[in-house]
Amino acid sequence: MAAKSARPTYAPDQISKYFKHISLPKDSQDLFHTPAKLHHPNNALKFFTQLQRHQIATVPFENLQLHYSRDHTISLDPAYLFNKIVDRGHGGYCMENNCFFGTVLRSLGFNVFSAGARVNTAASGTGEDGWEGWSHMVNIVTLSSGQKYMLDVGFGGNGPIQPLLLDPSAAHTQHIAPAEARLLHDNIPHNADPDQKLWQYQHRIDPQSDWQTMHCFTELEFLPKDYEIMNFWTSQSRKSSFTYRVVAVKMILEGEEVVGTLILDGSDVKRRVKGKTEQSRTCKTEEERVQALEDIFGLRLTDEERRGIGGMVTELRG
């Protein structure tokens, strides 16, 4: 029998440091020290919800490493990600944040694996309704009850804000009011085989609007080597929007409710609360954008990192 592969985990003191970094409520932190209670299905779901919401409200979805750095590359090494996210207070794009989050869940003893996802091109703003290749990542956790939940902390403003049950009959959930979200298990129109079904994460801006598919994913486990290939294309291909757009997104948390988003897209900065834009401004120079990243998102860049964008297509020249 083949030996089960060992995946990296974080030490207990690292987990405690992470909990402090995201300001996880004390009742959830206390569960960490009582594994039997933590893994009870009712407690686990509440814990996942708080963990996910505090993660997305603290750890930005961002791609600064591809623009403000010397080498313009992305690493998915869990130790590197811990330093980047917890020690430095930065974030990452989908595979960085979800790889880190999956390692946290594994370190807590949960039965978790990751799966690849295809982003809908209409949702990503890169084309009409269609699909990119495997360029996204989600985590799937199986509770002791046998129920499976999808946790995604790396999709940006319209991404999930709580665990979603992998059950075709599950009701839709509240997103940032008045928006809603759900999982659909169905074939996608572009498949040649009509009998193949995938989980589709859908979002709508209010109950009167049509559902829009954000991404679809499979329950086939993807391995670290799969993400190396996916990460290379997503971070290096000229066709990948991450290489020609600077983005940063962080959720706004009031109490335990996600009420809005902070968004930087290129030179534009917005604060949206409950579907309405409250503040908006445009950065005209690199100095203004770097200051906005620090003031609004808490992302501090070193002098070397600031120089890294010089000469790139994404540099703001004033």
Labels describing this entry:
alpha+beta; eight-stranded antiparallel β-sheet; five-stranded antiparallel β-sheet; 10 helices
Description:
This protein has 318 residues and is α+β, with helices and mostly antiparallel strands. Helix content is 30%, strand content 27%. The chain has ten helices and 13 strands. The chain has helices at 12-21, 26-31, 35-38, 41-58, 78-87, 94-107, 121-124, 224-236, 286-297, 303-307, and strands spanning 61-62, 111-120, 131-142, 148-151, 164-165, 173-174, 180-186, 198-204, 212-221, 247-254, 257-265, 268-273, 276-282. It has an eight-stranded antiparallel β-sheet. A hairpin with a 5-residue loop joins strand 6 and strand 7 (180-186). Helix 5 packs across helix 6 (94-107). The longest helix is centred in the N-terminal third of the chain and has 18 residues, at 41-58. It is globular. The chain starts with 11 loop residues before the first helix and ends in an 11-residue tail after the last helix.
Shape: globular
Average pLDDT reading: 95
| Strand order of the biggest β-sheet | 5-4-3-2-9-8-7-6
Q: Determine the N-to-C terminus distance.
A: 62 Å
